[in-house]
Amino acid sequence: MNETLQPGATLGVMGGGQLGRMFVHAAQSLGYETVVLDPDAGAPAGVVAQHQVRAGYLDEAGLAELARRCDAISTEFENVPAEALRQLAERRPVAPGAAAVAVCQDRADEKAQFVRCGVPCAPHALITDAAQLAAVPDALLPGILKTARMGYDGKGQASVADRAALQAAWAHLGHVPCVLEQRLPLRHELSVIVARNAGGELVNLPVQQNLHRDGILAVTQVPAPDIAPALQQQAVAAAREVAAAMDYVGVLCVEFFVLQDGRLVANEMAPRPHNSGHYSIDACDVSQFELQVRTLAGLPLVEPRLHSPAVMLNLLGDLWFDAADSARTPPWDAVLALPGVHLHLYGKTDARRGRKMGHLTVTAPTAAEARAVALRVAALLGLAAF
Ligand code: ATP
Ligand code: MG
Fold first, then answer.
1. Where are the domains positioned within the chain?
2. Does domain 186-381 have CATH number 3.30.470.20?
3. Which atom of ligand 1 approaches the CA of 184 most closely?
4. 128: CB partners within 8 A, 6+ apart
5. Can you tell me which residues bind ATP (predicted)?
6. Distance between CA 142 and CA 159 in Å, rounded?
7. Which residues are annotated as a binding site for ATP?
């Protein structure tokens, strides 16, 4: 994986969602050919790539075709079967590797990784059977029960106040392996995105401050307005340590909480570009997707520079419905009349509430101006202020 793939080579990506689409855009901009593997005909990345292999993630013929067409392969969603990455890795360089992706796919393994790196995380217990459920310490309640695998955007989670609620929630989740986390008193949320190449070069984006609504990322602000510099440095050091410890190659996002008492706690990580890093397309001199391309191709990494303060707003499918639940088109012309608005829509035709349809980033000469414009955008779109 130390050989450099020069522009003109073909880069593949497992998964055809919006992250794959933005990876494809970055790869094409650098002169690479792109191939996407995704079973869905209308996949956001599939429609922009030079080629789509339309196959399931464990389809052996599809995986073989992807390997045949590509010089190296990455992934855009963390629930890609580790087995598929293992099969691909027999034929082509794959980054991130199956082992690192497997850690990020399992909340228990992920937390164990944090602990190994000396990074604090929420007090928690693994629940795989009734005995473990009964043995859960009282201190973890009230808590949040999360499926160990396959959760995203707050799906596969339940808030549990007491033991009765815990039992009911575990039944509701189908008795699958879960992690019970103590509900922590959050003051702020932040994330750090790092990129590491096979040569061990490691760079990071500036710290993102994130606001979630209903378990889904709603707003990202950079520079982080409320996080003390020392805490930001601590988060960056932790994320870099975790990536290096896993011998990680690719883009990795680590999410953190700042607690009411000021302590920093790691929440989870994603072995890919992250929604909280989308602002980097418009506000940094190298985006998280270009970093993904560079790590996959074995190109040099340079420390990204934020050239404009930025506010990113997620655009969920809810915006495509009015108060009476009738379909509408959001008022893009009014939004785009404001300065520094960068609109990114993912080409999804079917708007559903809670579905990520796009995002927009506001850049401005100062953080205060970026925030002021973003608040005007939010008002135009009917989004809550922040
Ligand atoms: P993602 O879309 O980031 O993959 P996810 O479904 O994996 O989300 P988490 O990141 O675990 O879910 O949790 C979603 C949100 O729920 C967090 O960003 C935070 O706001 C809240 N949350 C999660 N765990 C805790 C906790 N232990 N205490 C308090 N709040 C929490
Ligand atoms: Mg999360």
1. 10-94, 123-182, 186-381
2. yes
3. 28
4. 177, 178
5. 107, 146, 151-157, 181-184, 189, 212, 267-268
6. 8
7. 107, 146, 151-157, 181-184, 189, 212, 267-268
